[in-house]
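Researcher: Here's a chain I'd like modeled. Treat it as a single chain, no partners, no ligands.
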Amino acid sequence: MRSILLHIADDDCLEPRTQVALDLARAFDGHLACLQAVAYEYGVPGDIYGSIVAEMVTAQREAAENLRGRCQQRLSTEDVAWSWEYEDGRALEHVLRASSLNDVVVVGSREPFSKASSLLARELATRMQTPMLLVPEHLNGLNCAGTAVVAWNGSPEASRALKAAVPLLAKAKSVLLASVLGEPGGDFDLPAVEGAEYLSRHGIGCEMTEFSFGHGSVAKVLADVAARREAAYLVMGAYGRPRAIETVLGGVTREIFAQPPLPIFTCH
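Model: Modeled as a single isolated chain. Structure tokens:
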């Protein structure tokens, strides 16, 4: 994970995900590629001469320049190689394009100027082939050598997330392969022991543990397990299809993305 793409936007998660991206870059002696995309899409009824639109675009450009200045000043004091790319247009298209030649994409869990969960993260989860690290707003960094919890249900999505996370899991002091018994739709062919055997071939030992689904939700069970183990991050597959993100994005994924208790390393 030596090429790390960091999404730049002025939201509550910017500082936490910047610190997480820096921690990743240091752990892997990597390069931090910062991507700032700003969409200027306004339509104001009755504004015949475009004066209101012009003022709004000017204000938005100034805000974007101020944000870039603040971020670049902060990065200039860090001992990490970094670069900056500025693009006009929706962040989704630019992040998807840039992700092709990056090892992991770091995004925040919140919308700019809002407490709503990030639409960008939900769209990327179903369209991007590159692993994504989703960062909540309350975080102050990432301990790459900390405990990792891997959500395992034997699905293709869980398998792809496990494989993508191998470089990160290799640095963890301990790895917990967590299966939730009774998970709806969780009857797949690959038992946890096969996931553990795969990790062992990469020199990674893990503990296999099963937890009861009970009357809560799979997302809550995983969050509780991660809290009890004081995990640094959670690895899980992302479930859903891009043509119907809001309705088809899996319930566990949607719930975790709405209120991530810790960084979520995910791959569709």
